[in-house]
Write a sequence for this structure.
């Protein structure tokens, strides 16, 4: 009996600690899609190894009246392309962080994760000639997704100044248009890469998605994000 009582006492002592452990807030958030009850989606375009494709992508976005989110790799941001990147901002598109050299961040050290993210920011600010607030990170290869939100990895990402990480639920690569369209749902985050093939697909895809009633907004708008938190949903 005495043993049972002391066991119960011990459990009572431990309980608040267990509850506390569960309530430890995650370092970061991770999104594969937004609100699935609203007909909004985000078109995201990664890498930008060929920034000379930017005007064509921007023209397509303008002609279809949509906003894009671009995830360039930092080394692809060149001061000689300043006018292009300023046009991105002027036309209301969003820029996110896709690391500086497309390094697999899940395999990188804490210092390297922080450097990859801040070097990309520095490159972007140099190109734009003014500071730009980047709200979200997209991991190269999407490879940080299995690391969990309370891990040392997640902590390094948040120590670099990022609490929002954005993945996707529809990847258009290696799929014909007629297979892509049915996969896009309310709240979808659609992944493209900045290459000629995806540019061509986008031209066909956008009118089809508009026909289905989707409004195409930036990821921060879709998810209601600011760099350090969330904006209240407007009804
Ligand atoms: Zn990439």
């Amino acid at each position: 009996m005495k043993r049972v009582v002391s066991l119960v006492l011990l459990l009572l002592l431990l309980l608040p600690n267990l509850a506390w452990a569960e309530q430890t807030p995650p370092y970061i958030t991770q999104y594969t899609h937004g609100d699935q009850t609203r007909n909004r989606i985000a078109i995201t375009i990664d890498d930008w190894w060929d920034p000379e494709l930017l005007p064509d992508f921007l023209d397509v976005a303008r002609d279809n009246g949509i906003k894009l989110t671009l995830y360039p790799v930092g080394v692809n941001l060149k001061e000689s392309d300043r006018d292009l990147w300023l046009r991105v901002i002027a036309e209301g598109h969003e820029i996110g962080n896709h690391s500086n050299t497309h390094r697999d961040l899940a395999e990188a050290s804490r210092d390297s994760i922080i450097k990859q993210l801040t070097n990309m920011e520095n490159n972007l600010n140099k190109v734009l000639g003014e500071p730009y607030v980047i709200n979200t990170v997209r991991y190269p290869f999407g490879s940080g997704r299995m690391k969990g939100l309370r891990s040392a990895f997640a902590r390094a990402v948040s120590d670099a100044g990022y609490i929002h990480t954005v993945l996707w639920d529809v990847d258009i690569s290696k799929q014909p248009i007629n297979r892509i369209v049915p996969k896009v749902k309310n709240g979808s985050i659609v992944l493209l890469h900045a290459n000629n093939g995806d540019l061509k697909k986008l031209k066909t895809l956008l009118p089809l998605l508009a026909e289905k009633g989707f409004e195409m907004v930036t990821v921060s708008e879709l998810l209601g994000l600011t760099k350090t938190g969330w904006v209240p949903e407007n009804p």
